[in-house]
Amino acid sequence: MEFGTFMEFPPLGEAGEFAAFDQALGEVAAADQWGLDAVWLAELHGAPERSVLSAPMMVASAIASATERVRIGIAVQVLPLSHPLRLAEEAATVDQVSKGRLIYGIGRSGVVRTYEEYGISYDESRERFAETLEIMRLAWTQPKFSYQGKYHSFDNVTLSPKPYQKPYPELRMAGATPETFPAIGRLGFPVFVAVRQGPFKQLVPYIESYRAAWKEAGHPGEGQVYLRVPAYIGETEKNARGELEESLMSFFAYQAELGRDSARRAGGQIALDRLKRVERLEALTFDEALATQVICGTPDSFTARLKEVQEEIGLDGILAELNCGGKIPHAGVMRALRLMCEEVKPRFH
Questions:
Q1: Burial classification of residue 348, based on how many CB atoms lie within 10 Å of its CB (0-12 exposed, 13-18 middle, 19 or more buried)
Q2: pTM to 2 decimal places
Q3: For residue 82, what is the DSSP state?
Q4: Which pLDDT belongs to residue 197?
């Protein structure tokens, strides 16, 4: 089981943006020291109330130079928003600086507003994603390459540097809609799954379709599944739940608002599907969340619950959101991180 922490670098109010970076990078340094397997960086744009982490590859480079062993994950790079050669160059550079510690998570994101702000139609996101990914893989592996696509064309271009890892950094892909899971399986990528908008059990058929497509495509093994999950660990059950509740529930309310906004902007069937998830989030209670889509407790109860989820959906690792909602005090996040590294992680090896 791979243990990672998913980070959004939340703002710290009057303390300023520098303090937000300083605090989050302090958590990364502790993760490196305490033996966490990976730190995962979000990519979030135009949401100053939520995050200062809009340029994850730049932050990844800073982490690479300041740490020794922890792997650096991007969860996820939103491929349709950027030029493919620039993305390939930046990823290869971070991989070189970190001596092969980059895990390159990729996805499309479901935040329609971000696409509008970048001047890109969300309706183009699927095609742009596929085209960008194909170009990046060519750039990483070929001395020179040419490409003619709908959105990008290149004639005899080369990329420098090439990645440290060969042929390129490990790619993991986010799955959010039912049709994406078999597509990821056919591509042969490990998959990210998340439970921000639904229960653990909802993931079972999606993961089954992913693994079936993986097998049908002839890939070895059965495919790897990594769960991004709101998580928290305290010294007692009461403390763990009490310290998590306000932050978690404010986050679900924020996600519901964001979902309504994206549904309004997207329209069509996408809007109808998202509104169903939004309505569930708006009705969700804290006790229901703890029972269905959060892992929270003491090291003992956290371990027991994680093992249940691991068995239920078949996990290869977690991206624990130890400050889901961004309102948990720094001392609590650091304690949860230490407990996960020192008391939970060893029980899975």
A1: middle
A2: 0.95
A3: S
A4: 64
